[in-house]
Fold this protein.
Amino acid sequence: MKIAVEGCAHGELERIYETIANIEKDAGTKIDLLLCCGDFQSTRNLEDLQTMAVPKKYLDMCSFYKYYSGELVAPVLTIFIGGNHEASNYLQELPYGGWVAPNIYYLGYAGVVNVNGVRIAGISGIFKGHDFLRGHHEYPPYNESTCRSVYHVRQLEVFRLKQLSGRVDIFLSHDWPTGIYEYGDKAQLLRRKPFFAADMESGKLGSQPLEELLKAIQPSYWFAAHLHCKFAALVPHNHSQKRSDDGSSSSSSSSEDEDEDDEKEKPSKPVPVTKFLALDKCLPRRAFLQVVELPSDPVMGKPRLEYDSQWLAILHSTNHLISVKENYYYLPGKKAGELTERFNFTPTEEELQAVTTKFEKLLVPENFERTVPAFDPEEQGNYKHMVVGQPKVHLNPQSNTFCAALGIDDPLCLVLLANGKELPAVGAAEVQDKSNDKEEQLTEDKGEPLITPTKRKLNLSLPAPKSEPADTSDKNVIDLPEEEEPEEAILSPEGSQLEESAPVPSIPNIKKLKRRNQDIYQAQEE
């Protein structure tokens, strides 16, 4: 299978696909898959553009909206991760991945998929130490702080990826792992980027969690971007490196001469090597794209995108570790918590079997659905001088379907509930038919967009959205819609019966949560 790898896309999808078409024409071959290493900029409209953490003079719609609206279709299956220049509100709707447009798939905060037997893993965002131990507490509209922290890597995603076992063919990241420059032509890199020297000396060039993942996962290929230059390296993995019980990698070396002599007498084994390659951004005369060829399963027709059963099992078994609070928290480990607490979540055979039962076919469904109107250049072409606000929060039907099938929670739903917000309806937004001169919209009699509400099912028992009923002092009251009459009395967490009042959007079905975890999702009242 021939795979094209792109560095920083920066929204230039049309140029990237044109480059691939020229390669196919010149080489007389067919590119089966495109991988993008962040800064994808999947901005659907002007509101999405406002969530990007860049100076306003650099805000540009680029061309993604054409693929979102259906004006253009991606000619090759495209898989990407997030960077630090993204439509964060849109990507936050898909924490576990999903289609952002037909034939364009986002891996989520972190994810693992298989394409024709090639196993691809990746992690979105960049590393900032002050946010690494926090939960995913951000939600739209963002402020000056959260519009940046929303794309910072969190410990949970790194912890989950460390639970993987078996072969990983390709790993995608936006950041570089720390110390990676020691395995390539460091002198040449400094000639092109002399200002890297200070960060190299202080150990700040790259991400330390990614270095840990590199040693733990040991993928065949690792592709990155972010620093806007091409750099290649070969990283050998010592046989003494081994995965510890908590999923992290550790190195054991013997200082005894006898052990060293024994090692010399043993027949040498091939040392596993990771081929690292960082690429530039999409600009003329820049090294932004590379084609590699990997052995794969022969498949007729278009490439087959499948979920990874092991990753699904890890998501399910670590669902209780999700945090949506801004304060630091710590994950299970040998030296943390009770000794009886589980800290190794590499899936067992029973857990893999349970996932296989839930997903009889691991094929990723092609269930893309537009949820907001796309940018219209005819009406909004002069957007540089327009004043546009940030979008409201939306829930994506793909996440709803995936979470319900796997039995896990959507972090975006949890953070809304934890902050006393009502969950918006899940469904399709207004659809515009550009084949006719007139714009047709699906509306109700009152002229409002027609949205099909979908109830969300959450695994955890979370506090109800905060409300202030006019005629009651009970703080644990949930208002029920008038048209829904409960067959049985609904009880609050304290056991008191809930009252009925004015209608609000449907409240998700929530199961009981162990009392010790409730404070994780409780909104701060101070």
In short: The two ends are 56 Å apart (CA to CA). Residues 244-265, 430-457, 461-518, 520-526 have pLDDT under 50 and may be disordered.
